[in-house]
Amino acid sequence: MSANEFKLNADEQPFDKPDADKPKATRPRDAATLILVRGGREVMMGQRSKGHVFMPDKWVFPGGRVDPGDARAKAATELTAETEALLKKGTISRRPVRAFALAATRETLEETGLSVGGSSGPELDKLSFVARAITPPYRPRRFDARFFMADAEAVLADDKPAEGEELLHVRWFSLADANALDLPSITRFVLKEVEARLAGEAVQPPFLRWSRGAHSLERLTS
Question: In angstroms, rounded to a whole number, what is the distance separating the alpha carbons of residues 183 and 190?
């Protein structure tokens, strides 16, 4: 265990408790999420429909799986050197790390109708890397998710979202109201990271995963 990695206490668990009968571990799929912040006080979230197998009815940030074409998508600007270095930490995926950021912006458009960037593509240098989390091995659906954050006023031409098939009731919430929603454990954990950043705290992105039979958290440094 590295010097900046530690086990989480029972009240800090970023994922729900495992089922009694653990299924065979599946390989996690790359995924990405974008947390849009408005005015330093609000975040945009939507509710997953009842028909979803994965986290039905839960309130989440827009995001989803990384597609093969995301690595080739155009962008107005690229990731900063620091963000790129952080994303590469512990990543064994053969995809260029820009694919994670571009997947987050694509999923945001598909799920909320909001376009991050103009005709030249998103300005990736305006996205900050907030967290990474790998779903524990006992889950039937596993994701290796990267969470990004961006100032809505800096990246959106229009901040009026519209619900789609994936996310319902998409809207802006104050941080207090967002915390009161029915959130997945990992979403609540990441929301706290966002709050810390908005409060001016200098925090490094946490990397959450299952290690040595327990949840562990490592702060990534470039």
Answer: 11
Q: Apex CA 148: angle with CA 1 and CA 134, to 5°?
A: 40
Cα–Cα distance measured from residue 222 to residue 220, given in angstroms and rounded to the nearest whole number? 7
CA distance 206 to 220: 6
**Does 89 or 165 have the greater pLDDT score?**
89
Tokens of 113: 């109708």
Q: How far is it, in rounded angstroms, from Cα 58 to Cα 48?
A: 6
Six token digits for residue 123: 């300005």
Average pLDDT over residues 110-118: 93
| Among 114, 210, 121, residue whose Cα is nearest residue 160 | 114
Q: Residue 10 pLDDT > 70, yes or no?
A: no
- Helix %, strand %, coil % for the chain, to 5? 25, 30, 45
φ, ψ of residue 15 in degrees (nearest 5): -125, 155
The residues near 147 (Cβ < 8 Å, ≥ 6 apart) are: 32, 33, 35, 61, 63, 129, 130, 131, 132, 133, 190, 193
Q: Is the pTM of this model over 0.70?
A: yes
What's phi and psi for 16, nearest 5 deg?
-65, 165
Domains with residue ranges and CATH for the chain: 35-219 (3.90.79.10)
pLDDT at 24: 64
